[in-house]
Model the fold of this input.
Amino acid sequence: MALQIIESNGTLQVYGNLNAANTQILKKHLNLFSNAKNYMILNLEKVSGMDATAAHMLRQLYLYAMKNQRLLSIIGEKNPNILPIMNKTKTFYILSHDRV
Done:
């Protein structure tokens, strides 16, 4: 499934496979969305797969948000399609423990 990003009630919902070929698309969406708010919610619960490049890009976005005093909540801790790569790349810590 191709990557699909939908904004709904202040949350960016991501559908499909997140990989090296499309991480820049997600990054552009997050940058556009973050310009309007000091907080962002990124929902990865419907992501069907992820590669290491995408996991590291998410970590970079998370650290950039922290550095610039913005809140980025990344939801997807219960998604079995992304957990193995998040654990392997040691980026699991960026996932929010709370659901919005």
